[in-house]
Every structure is written in C-alpha cells, then in structure tokens.
Design goal:
Elements lengths: L5 E4 L3 H10 L6 E4 L14 H6 L9 E3 L4 E2 L29 E3 L2 E3 L6 H14 L28 H12 L4 E3 L6 H6 L19 H8 L5 E4 L2 E8 L6 E8 L2 E5 L3 E4 L3 H10 L23 E8 L13 E3 L15 E4 L5 H7 L5 H9 L1 E8 L8 E5 L2 E5 L5 H17 L4 E6 L35 E3 L14 H18 L4
Parallel strand pairs: 1-2, 1-12, 2-8, 3-18, 12-20
Antiparallel strand pairs: 3-4, 5-6, 7-14, 9-10, 10-11, 13-16, 13-19, 14-15, 15-16, 17-18
Helix pairs in contact: 1-6, 1-11, 3-11, 8-9
The structure holds flavin-adenine dinucleotide (FAD).
Flavin-adenine dinucleotide binds next to helix 1, strand 9, helix 7 and helix 11.
C-alpha cells in the first residue's frame, strides 16, 4: 500500500484516535509507527527495572540549546507515550478555552469554545471507557453524557486523605481514569502510572482506539517505520510524499492525505527537517513550527506521617481543583493537584541517589504521593529545533509563581491534615510527558501553522493531530483533549475530503 488514501504517522493518542474516527469510512489508511509492540516480559511490573535501570527508556538523547545532552522519557512503542500514562482522562476546564490571566502572563484562548467542543469530549470518554464521578469537583465543566462507569475506588489510606482534605473545607474529587482496576491488578499488585501496559488494564491508545481502528480491513499498521521527512509538491501547496525508513531501507508513500501525529516534539522535528525552498521546513509560513513548546510546571509532593503506613497499592484516585481558577484568596490561578501512582523505595532511589535504601523504603512506605501541576504559558522562544538528526530543546519555563504558590498552600494543607513532613521536588526537562504547543492551531495563518481543524494553512492535504496543536497547556493532563480533537478532525475529514 504505497499510495493509500491516507497516511497517519504515529499510533499514539492523536494517531490512533483519528484512525478510529476514520474507521468504516471506506478510505484506505496506512499507519506508520516508528516503534514496535510493547512485549509482555517480567520487567513490566518491576519498579527497579522500570525506574532505576530505565529498561523501557529510549536510548535517544536530546540536547539543550546550550549543548548539554539529556535522555528524555519519551516513549516509542505502538500506542506511544500512552502505554506508560497515568490514564487520567480529564477535560480541560471551560475557562481554559478563553484567555486567562496567570501570574506569569496570559494563557491564550482556543479558536472555539468549550460548548462547541463538548460533544467530542463525551465521545472520547466513551472510546477510552473513562471511569469517574460527576458533581464532586467545583471546576467541572458541563458533561452532556455522564461517565459510563463509576470511579476507581479509593484504597483505605486514600479514603482517609479524601476525608482529611474535606475536613479543611476543600473539594477532593475522583480522578477520571481509563483503568479497569481488576484487569490491571490481575497482572501484578502495582500502580499503573509510568508502568508499561501490556494487558488490558489501562485503556491506552493501543488497547482503546487502535484496536477499534484495526478492525477495519482498510486500515493497516506498519511498525518499525520511522518517518524522516515529508516532501512537498512542486507548487508546495500539498504534501506529495512521506519518506520513511524501515529495516534500514528508505521507503516512500504517496497518499492523498497526510495526518502527522508523531507527538509534539517529533511532529515539529519532522516538519522542520522537511526540505523547503526557504529552509524553514514545511507548514511553517508562520515561523511558529517548533515554537511555543510547553510542558507543565510540576512537582512531586510527599506528605509523610512516620506514625502511619500508607498501604495503598495503586493510590492514584484523587484530584483537587480548589486552586485551579484562583489561589483561593481572590488571586490568580495556581493549578491542579492529583495523586501520583504509589511510589516505593526504588522509585525514590531513581531520584534521590544519596540516601540509603532502607531510609527510602521507610519514607515511601509512610508517604502519600501527590503531583502538583501548573500551566506553562506559550512563548515563541520556548522551542524545539533540529540540528541534523538531533533534537534541540530550548524550554523557557514560564509562570513558575503558580507552582511556588501551589507548593506553599498544599504544604500548609498537608501539615494541617497531620502530616509533619512534606517534601517536594520539581520535575525537569527529562520528563517531557505533557509536551505540547509546537504546531498550534488558530484562526490566523500569520501566527499559527494549523487552522481550527488542525489542517495546515500551507498544505491543504496535511493535518497535524497530536499534542502539538494545543494552543495552551492548561493545568490538567492533555490526552483526553487530544483524543477529542482527533475525533472532531476525523469528522471534518469525512465531511470535506471523503465525500463521494
Ligand atoms: C509517564 C507518563 C505519564 C503520563 N500520564 C498521563 C495521564 O495520566 N493523562 C494524560 O492525559 N496524559 C498523560 N501523559 C501524556 C500523554 O501520554 C501524552 O499527552 C499523549 O500520549 C500525547 O499524544 P500524542 O498523540 O501527542 O503523542 P504520543 O501518544 O506520544 O504518540 C506519538 C507516536 O508517534 C510515534 N512516532 C514518533 N516519531 C515518529 C516518526 N518519526 N515516525 C513514525 N512514528 C513516530 C511514536 O512512537 C508514538 O507512537 C503521560 C505521559 C507519560 C510519559
């Protein structure tokens, strides 16, 4: 299939979901995925192998603009980063679709409203079989369809944490999760956040939308197919070919339509590497490809009570949005708080090298482990660049005042709940989990590479459908918003491109 109707590059959240949205349309679709299927081995539930030995981390190195090389936690498997995700499938809040003032500047609006987008959020929740509870969270936006399944249950120490936070007058709420907890625990008594999914416990891009898409005989997945660059037609108005390397051989596909879904960093890199008359790559008349790179400002926070063991296995069932729209005193937004998966001594060892293992085991065994997440604002100088085959990341963090504020208020809250020790540590560039913004959508071709349906303003047969399209990072996990937009773009393609 070298001249299918559509080539989709990448089988992560964006690529797999748009494939599922196009299934049954009659279009012949070739999916090109750089990675292979994640094999089930004894490492999949071994925290030492995963977190200390980096068994699943790619060997690739990215560089900072100054030259320092680092190994990013960016995963290349069928299903992409979602194979390792925490399966939090949460909607952006309604306010995230409008301009919002933050301590560090203004978060831009989306080119359409939450109300317009809402039906696709509902469809994405159904596709990923999200479990949750409505009515607990004060920032919850309107849902036209309730969750199909009740929330993953709190374990007893987490039920206690929920009650403690409620006792302070706060509104802890159940995390919306794509997790079938019984199926997950059958393969091992661990959490799922950052663990590879080789069964059906997590509904990730592969076990959810890709499985649905591949039921259509017109959709075919090629693995080990590493796309190197796109080729424009001679008048540059369309993409004429996709060039990829498979088993050491350079190959070429010539579809009618190209959907680029290689993830925010790699999609930008593919476009920037693609030959163009001005040397700025393709889809880049706006000079914004690679720019506006965002990745949440986030910290791990351990609330430790040496007198009480945290016996949770998975832990990750709560969030708190009391500081999402304001700092609680009439000030600007701070961000979202949610549980991490339960950490152990090995996971701590991966981050704190010097402490003895028994001390780390004790600490982890008595901690409730939280994740503080704050909005990173777009900045054209925060950018992904390419240098030959290398990826160069110049991440200009913004809005750190929000993370400082959230850290301070949550430390006070956890102390008030009776945890005498509260430790926190920010995540850094080696964790680009929530990368986004590098190929943003908007109304104006002068300032955005993509239109509101993720179509390139420059090449009408190119769509970019992954975290790159997000115009802002908000302060919630991105996957459900990527999936909802992928379904919306699929509907648009069916209407505008596939009509007989
Ligand atoms: C540990 C971890 C935990 C996370 N937890 C959550 C969470 O709980 N909730 C949430 O919403 N988000 C979470 N995320 C983020 C979430 O996984 C991403 O936002 C999401 O997967 C992004 O979707 P995407 O389509 O942009 O990219 P991806 O899903 O990463 O897909 C990109 C795909 O393109 C492929 N690819 C890349 N380059 C090429 C190439 N040159 N040729 C061919 N194929 C290529 C990749 O192999 C991959 O399959 C987490 C991420 C990590 C790493």
């Amino acid at each position: 299939m070298t001249n299918p109707d559509i080539v989709i590059i990448g089988s992560g959240i964006g690529g797999a979901t748009i494939a599922s949205g196009l299934a049954g349309s009659g279009a012949s679709i070739l999916m090109l995925e750089r990675g292979e299927k994640l094999p089930a081995t004894p490492h999949t539930r071994d925290t030492r192998a995963i977190f200390v030995d980096g068994h699943y981390r790619p060997k690739e190195m990215w560089r900072e603009a100054g030259g320092t090389a680092f190994n990013p936690g960016n995963y290349y498997y069928v299903g992409g980063n979602s194979k390792f995700f925490g399966a939090v499938l949460i909607r952006y809040r309604k306010e995230d679709f409008s301009e919002m003032e933050h301590y560090g500047g203004v978060s831009p609006a989306w080119p359409f409203s939450y109300d317009e987008f809402e039906p696709w959020y509902s469809r994405a929740e159904q596709l990923f079989r999200v479990r949750g509870a409505l009515g607990e969270d004060p920032t919850e936006p309107f849902h036209s369809i309730p969750y199909a399944f009740g929330p993953v249950p709190d374990e007893p120490p987490i039920a206690r944490a929920r009650a403690e936070l409620k006792g302070l007058g706060l509104h802890p709420a159940s995390l919306p999760l794509g997790v079938d907890i019984d199926a997950w625990l059958k393969d091992g008594k661990t959490g799922w956040d950052a663990f590879p999914n080789t069964g059906t416990g997590k509904v990730d891009a592969q076990t959810g939308p890709l499985a649905a898409a591949l039921a259509d005989r017109n959709i075919r997945l090629e693995t080990g197919a590493h796309v190197e660059y796109l080729e424009a037609s001679s008048d540059a108005r369309t993409i004429a070919a996709v060039h990829y390397r498979q088993n050491g051989t350079l190959k070429k596909a010539t579809p009618k339509l190209v959907v680029l879904s290689a993830g925010a960093v790699n999609s930008a890199a593919i476009l920037l590497r693609s030959p163009s008359p001005n040397g700025k790559g393709l889809a880049n008349r706006s000079d914004q490809v690679g720019r506006n790179f965002m990745n949440h400002n986030s910290s791990a926070m351990l609330a430790i009570d040496p007198r009480r063991r945290n016996t949770s296995v998975y832990q990750k069932t709560l969030m708190l949005n009391d500081y999402y729209l304001s700092d609680g005193k009439g000030g600007k937004p701070l961000g979202n708080v949610q549980l991490l998966g339960k950490i152990d001594g090995h996971i701590l060892r991966a981050n704190v090298k010097l402490a003895p293992k028994f001390a780390l085991d004790f600490m982890a065994g008595h901690a409730v482990d939280w994740y503080l997440m704050c909005e990173d604002l777009p900045d054209p100088e925060s950018r992904i660049m390419v240098d030959g085959k290398d990826i160069v990341m110049q991440w200009r963090r913004s809005n750190m005042q929000s993370l400082d504020g959230l850290t301070k208020v949550m430390r006070e809250n956890f102390r008030a709940c009776g945890y005498p020790i509260v430790l926190s540590r920010p995540f850094d560039k080696r964790t680009p989990s929530h990368q986004c913004g590098t190929v943003k959508m908007g109304d104006d071709p002068a300032t955005s590479p993509l239109d509101p349906f993720c179509r390139s303003f420059d090449h009408r047969n190119l769509f970019v459908v992954d975290a790159g399209f997000l115009p802002n990072s908000a302060a919630v996990n991105p996957a459900l918003s990527i999936a909802a937009q992928a379904l919306r773009v699929a509907d648009h393609i069916r209407k505008t491109e596939l009509v007989a």
